[in-house]
Design goal:
The structure is a homodimer. By secondary structure, the first copy, chain A, is of the alpha/beta class. The first copy, chain A, has 8 helices and 7 strands, in the order αβαβαβαββααβαβα. The relative contact order of chain A is 0.17.
């Protein structure tokens, strides 16, 4: 067990150093990077499609899609107007900084303003690996149930923004929004939260506006 | 990378040996063990509650609940009539054979006919670790989307039964059942599949009947 922990710590240390390098590359090119995490089917790709529809061509957006298999997500992002790169993790349950480095190598960063990184669908492992993006956002989904903050605390603790998707399904599933938000507040007080439906378009303006503000903050610093 | 792969192979080899031991203990006590896997919020706990309502007291059912944090699920299983044990994985994204061994130690196996193991909510990592149960079942969920077999092939390939939950949400979300089932058929031809709604109760009789048959097959062998 001790040996295993030592190996894990070594891997995480190397990951953090590489994440810093990735951040420097994004900063150097003036690209705002966002790490998007969620469980399978919460709506990462749909949120990216909606975001692209709102931001392109005003901003130049790149998408790096992490998946265990297939290029379904990158194809959808490309169709929606992004420069998209697919990373197949070969069975790994999360993106890490090395994989993101590979994605950055495949993009012309000077030709981008924003980079959306779609992590592997998983509420656990991606939380342990920084990629070097400026911010991270979690997409929760109404049909997943209202107990998820309590059950996946590390993920909820570590993100800079929360998107609650599929809000249009509230009438059809048992979901206590107050209980859910109480759990979020305990773990990540004051977390910026958006209630949206990527299907109907409800609530997406606020999310897009937040993203625009992040990009222009970076530009002011740069 | 080579070192990392060697460590992973060593871990998996040790896991398999321990899984065989777990299986021998279940066989010795005449307990049918089922490993239930799904992404977060697909309905593992709800399916267990419905199953308990149908099987108890006709059969004596134990539940081992794996979670990163909290005992919400074990509490729900105990309230529904099971002897329930919670295993907090301490951040790990899956159950392994060692953790199941700990769960078996905490149960009186001679007093059980069935053991339902609720794995951690995750479509990737649990597929790599056998626990020693007799069968494994995957719960898919309509709002997760119809592309999940294509995106998580290892999980869909490895299971003995598939429960498609939240079938009552079909009118409210885009989900092409034929496309989904085609993906399943490619990966796991002839897979036993149940379309159910744990909320309305629809389709659950067939699932419970399948489970009953598995238990009585084991009894005939034993």
């Amino acid at each position: 067990m001790k040996q295993r922990i030592a190996v894990v710590e070594k891997i995480l240390g190397a990951n953090d150093r590489l994440a810093e390098e990735n951040r420097r590359r994004l900063d150097g090119a003036g690209v705002f990077g966002l790490n998007l995490m969620a469980s399978p089917g919460a709506g990462k790709t749909s949120l990216i499609e909606r975001t692209l529809a709102a931001l392109v061509p005003e901003l130049r957006v790149g998408v790096i899609d992490g998946d265990v298999a297939t290029s379904i997500d990158a194809d959808r992002a490309a169709a929606a107007g992004a420069t998209a790169v697919q990373i197949n993790t070969g069975g790994e349950c999360h993106l890490d900084a090395t994989m993101l480095q590979g994605g950055l190598d495949a993009l012309d960063l000077e030709a981008l303003d924003v980079l959306l990184v779609e992590n592997v669908g998983n509420l656990i492992c991606p939380a342990a690996f920084s990629l070097g993006t400026h911010q991270s956002a979690l997409i929760a989904s109404i049909p997943e149930g209202d107990d998820k903050p309590y059950k996946y605390p590390t993920m909820y603790r570590g993100v800079n923004a929360l998107v609650i998707n599929k809000i249009d399904l509230l009438p059809y599933v048992p979901f206590d929004l107050a209980y859910f938000r109480r759990g979020v507040e305990l773990l990540n007080p004051g977390l910026v939260t958006f209630e949206v439906s990527c299907r109907t378009g409800q609530g997406l303006e606020a999310w897009v506006e937040w993203l625009r503000m992040q990009v222009s903050s970076l530009e002011r610093v740069g």
